[in-house]
């Protein structure tokens, strides 16, 4: 009976968001309260679980996501992303231009949220397509594939970060495994798949975004790359320092401090504020104003993340997690495949990759500790599933259609197919890597 209640509540959640266009935060709140009451929890305990779910989820990732939004905005507004794109384009040349676009999306996609990266890089895509007289879809798809994969698979992006913390996954291993899985997904669904659109004729009237900054105003390439990768570099440095100083309490303590994602993000933001902002003549006041605007941009994302934690906490506090674990362990499907299927189904129903991943986390959370599979692989599996089958209920689908002036059929054949390929290839990569890691 408990499983029927949970399935019914998730179905209601999908209907409220997808059919009746409810705000995701309100839908999660209402469904979480209803789920707790239907499961027989006392009303006061339901409210306590909802509060705990929000507090525990946001308390662990709020600082990281806010600092990440600030850093991403700085990378974009300073022209660092444009410098990286221009340099990579000149290095690869026309023959390998789609590979240059994919690599640009890979590097820039580490600090930038998908929607921000999309709007920021579209002018570059159009400029390159015009310069080489090539199809915009052919040029743009590899870059947007990489952006999408980085957003879905890897921290410090919101869903991946929340999943890593909820599943108690190691962030460094998650990032390394994620990169290994991401590369073949980007290569196959990006440059290789995009070749099918090389001779496509563009229509007139595509949406043109704000022009990129002038070349002379852009930061240096070393500065741009180091700032974009700075959170990853800090955590990697801390990990190496921890290994070297394992017998030294001071070094070990310093490494543990620096390896905290919030500390790595804060140090990155401080250094990048100086190297990309103050040293470039941007006033401290303007930097702070820009950072405040970046937080406004992610306010709803934060609410959705917190509200997804409500449902997970109801599942745990009602002891439904025990029943879910028992059912999943009896399921004939491998646990990672089951996790992918659940997430992919939610993605098809809800549209948003972030919401689908966070909702799936609440359902499969009880399974993670029972299977013996390293939690990093569950993070990547849910990330892969959350990208499957983007269609008309996903804002990214419409952004791609309108910016590139495509028909619905063309959007399905390009964007939806690409997202589905990334998801399936990602699952295959996780399964292969998991077997190698556990077998070694």
UniProtKB/TrEMBL annotation:
The keyword Cell membrane applies. InterPro entries: Glcn_transporter. GO terms for molecular function: gluconate transmembrane transporter activity. One of its GO terms (cellular component) is plasma membrane. Keywords: Cell membrane, Membrane, Transmembrane, Transmembrane helix, Transport. The chain crosses the membrane at residues 28-50, 57-76, 96-125, 137-154, 174-197, 218-245, 257-278, 298-316, 336-365, 377-400, 412-433. The keyword Plastid does not apply. It is found in: Cell membrane. It is a multi-pass membrane protein. Its main location: membrane. It comes from the Bacteria. Belongs to the GntP permease family. This is Gnt-I system high-affinity gluconate transporter. It comes from Arcticibacter pallidicorallinus. The lineage of its organism: Bacteria, Pseudomonadati, Bacteroidota, Sphingobacteriia, Sphingobacteriales.
């Amino acid at each position: 009976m408990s499983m029927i209640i949970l399935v019914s509540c998730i179905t209601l959640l999908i209907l409220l968001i997808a059919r009746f266009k409810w705000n995701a935060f309100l839908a999660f709140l209402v469904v979480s309260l209803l789920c707790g009451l239907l499961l027989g929890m006392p009303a006061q305990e339901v409210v306590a679980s909802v509060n705990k779910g929000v507090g525990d989820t946001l308390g662990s990732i709020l600082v990281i996501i806010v600092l990440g939004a600030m850093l991403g905005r700085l990378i974009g507004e300073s022209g660092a992303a444009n410098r990286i794109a221009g340099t990579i384009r000149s290095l690869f040349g026309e023959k390998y231009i789609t590979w240059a676009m994919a690599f640009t999306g890979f590097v820039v996609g580490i600090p930038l949220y998908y929607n921000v990266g999309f709007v920021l890089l579209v002018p570059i895509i159009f400029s390159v397509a015009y310069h080489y007289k090539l199809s915009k879809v052919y040029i743009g798809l590899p870059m947007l594939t990489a952006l999408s994969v980085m957003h879905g698979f890897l921290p410090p992006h919101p869903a991946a970060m929340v999943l890593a913390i909820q599943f108690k996954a190691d962030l460094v291993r998650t990032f390394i495994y994620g990169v290994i899985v991401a590369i073949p997904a980007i290569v196959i669904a990006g440059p290789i798949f995009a070749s099918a659109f090389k001779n496509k004729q563009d229509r007139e009237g595509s949406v043109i975004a704000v022009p990129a900054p002038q070349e002379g105003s852009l930061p240096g390439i070393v500065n741009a790359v180091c700032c974009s990768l700075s959170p990853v570099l800090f955590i990697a440095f801390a990990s190496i320092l921890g290994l070297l100083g394992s017998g030294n309490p001071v070094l070990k303590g310093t490494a543990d401090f620096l390896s905290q994602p919030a500390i790595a993000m804060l140090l990155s933001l401080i250094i990048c504020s100086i190297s990309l902002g103050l040293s470039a003549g941007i006033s401290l006041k303007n930097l702070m104003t820009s950072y405040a605007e970046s937080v406004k941009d992610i306010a709803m994302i934060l609410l959705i993340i917190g509200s997804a934690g409500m449902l997970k906490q109801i599942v745990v506090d009602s002891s439904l997690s025990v029943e879910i674990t028992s059912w999943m362990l009896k399921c004939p499907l491998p646990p990672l495949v089951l996790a992918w299927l659940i997430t992919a189904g939610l993605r098809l129903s809800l549209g948003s990759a972030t919401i689908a991943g966070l909702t799936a986390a609440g359902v499969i959370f009880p399974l993670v500790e029972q299977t013996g599979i390293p939690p990093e692989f569950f993070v990547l599996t849910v990330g892969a599933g959350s990208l499957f089958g983007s269609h008309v209920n996903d804002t990214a689908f419409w952004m791609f259609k309108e910016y590139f002036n495509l028909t619905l059929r063309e959007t399905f054949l390009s964007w939806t197919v690409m997202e589905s390929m990334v998801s399936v290839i990602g699952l295959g990569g996780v399964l292969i890597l998991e077997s190698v890691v556990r077998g070694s």
